[in-house]
Amino acid sequence: MVSDHEHKLIRERCSQLPAAQGNYLETDFIQNLFLTVLDFQMHGVAVAKSVRHYQENRWNEVRTLDELKGVLSRFNDDRDGNTMAAEYLWGNKHWYRLSLLRGLVSYFESVGINRQERLVEWAESRFDRDFSGKVKGLGYAVYQWLVMRQGIETVKPDTHLHLFVEQTIGHQITDEQLVGLLEGVARDLGLRAYELDWRIWEHQRGRPGTELPRGWV
Length: 217
Known about the structure:
The protein is built from twelve helices and no strands. By secondary structure, the protein is mostly helical. Helix 1 (4-15) packs across helix 11 and helix 5 (79-90) packs across helix 6. The longest helix is centred in the middle third of the chain and has 16 residues, at 95-110.
């Protein structure tokens, strides 16, 4: 658990962070799908490179869920086929990420999420009810990052935020505890939770106030 004293320590440290100039919002439906399966436990440079490959080579071909399904159907759903599909869409060999994409596409299709407007509406969901166990391999942290990109006021429990908190209070906490803690701190400071997340992220990366190029997350 996080004590009142530890909450105060985090609040005081967060109050000293400079304002963030970047933001997490992503308004493109297909890129939201790609980022959901690419941008966890993967270096940001590799994520950005994958997104750029899509933007430069497949953008006009894959703009809807049906078009994405059409591309995926051309490749076998096995390691070799998913490797080829990953090369085609992202310019890499991340076959497992591609298999996660298939699962995400199937889940969203099953609940009628086939365009950005519906994804934004769905983001007002709950992890335990609406996402937990729906796509094998995608869990709480991935869900948090997905809904954040749609403007939900929360934070994502990634390595940067965990390290920031651990350095401040001297011990580790769970993903759920981290989210609750930083959402509370954001309210105390009159900030959007995702704005506080971005401030911490920039601080931990050593580049406060830096807005990253499109596709870098």
